[in-house]
Amino acid sequence: MNLPGFPVGRPRRLRTSPALRRLVAETSLNVSQLVLPLFARSGRKLRRPVNAMPGVFQLSPDEIVREATAAHALGVPAVLLFGIPDKKDAKASGAYAKNGIVQQVTRLLKKEVPSLLVITDVCLCEYMEHGHCGIVHGGKILNDPSLKLLARTAASQAEAGADIVAPSDMMDGRVRAIRAELDNEGLIDTPIMSYAAKFASAFYGPFREVAESAPAFGDRRSYQMDAANSNEAIREVALDIQEGADMVMVKPALAYLDIIHRVKTEFGLPTAAYAVSGEHAMIKAAAANGWIDERNVTLESLLAMRRAGADILITYAAMDVARWLKQG
Ligand code: PBG
């Protein structure tokens, strides 16, 4: 680039007023980009706070409707639903039960707040007694036998009215299996947002307390990606796209901005960034101590994800962000 040097070139010229700075801003945050994760469990009037995540609750269906209605009123276009079943077992029955918690809540939300998009997390870990994302045999997490359960889960959620299904298990071939099952059930218009590049991350710690999904033995490193890898993330995303993913996700977000950038540049698909539980917890904790400004740090982090290439921002702070954006 052949830029004029100082004193002809003065970058500060474009920073002299708020209006001018806004005029030349390259990226922006908008409420239409936000997705709010919600955690459903059975009950009534249940709003159970979670130690590790201030402002995040396990909610009964009636409370989910309240929360989702409030988010919708603020302009948040979508929620991402997770379920905490009453009973866990070795085949994750609760994940694909016709009246499973996510299926129930999905039906309810589509009835009460029809224009709110319901994205359902497709995974088995919350429903398995051992907390892994696939079927376990002899201490191993089996890939191919798990696909059928994941596909059934996605189809039953879509059947219940989910607008988008989002597989987060990281089994090989799950997107293909889910697409085939959806199509087979006539659900050809249900898009798949795959957690395509999902890393085995310590930033998921607080989530596992909320979702009660910590693995009972071992860890998730045999299916989630190694934080050391970037080329592998591109291969993972390419495979999911070949298998039928309509949108892709990178997760976590802030520590993986390089991956978001590569994925968006390489494939150009609608790309989501998931600002995960640990990212949220860090901001909340530092802000509670008065060490950082919660609003500005949150907005700056999300803007960084947008700058990296994310179109969709999944964040526990979605409602606060919507309020802040409204205030300008
Ligand atoms: C389920 C799932 C997890 C998250 C989203 N879906 C946990 C995990 O993989 O252990 C993490 C989200 C967060 O930390 O906010 N597989």
Cα Rg: 20 Å
CATH class: Alpha Beta
Note the run of SSEs as H and E.
HEEEHEHHEEEHEHEHHEHEHHEH
**Tally of DSSP β-strands:** 12
Which structural class is indicated by helix and strand composition?
alpha/beta
Poorly predicted segments? none
Average of per-residue pLDDT values = 97
Bound compounds? ligand PBG
**Treating each run of at least 4 consecutive H or I residues as one helix, how many helices?**
12
Assembly status: single chain
Strand content: 15-25%
Helix content: 25-40%
What's the number of domains? 1
Which outline best applies? globular
The separation of the N and C termini measures 35 Å
CATH topology: TIM Barrel
From the 3D coordinates, which CATH architecture would you assign? Alpha-Beta Barrel
Biggest β-sheet description: 10 strands, mixed
Summary of the model, kept short:
By secondary structure, this protein is of the alpha/beta class. The protein has helices at residues 18-23, 61-73, 93-96, 101-112, 144-159, 174-184, 205-210, 231-243, 257-267, 277-288, 294-308, 318-327, and strands at residues 34-41, 47-50, 53-59, 78-84, 117-122, 135-137, 140-142, 164-167, 193-198, 247-251, 271-275, 312-315.
Q: How is the topology of this model organized?
A:
Layout lengths: L17 H6 L10 E8 L5 E4 L2 E7 L1 H13 L4 E7 L8 H4 L4 H12 L4 E6 L12 E3 L2 E3 L1 H16 L4 E4 L6 H11 L8 E6 L6 H6 L20 H13 L3 E5 L5 H11 L3 E5 L1 H12 L5 H15 L3 E4 L2 H10 L1
Parallel strand pairs: 1-3, 1-4, 1-12, 4-5, 5-8, 9-10, 10-11, 11-12
Antiparallel strand pairs: 2-3, 6-7
Helix pairs in contact: 2-4, 5-6, 6-8, 8-9, 9-11
The structure holds ligand PBG.
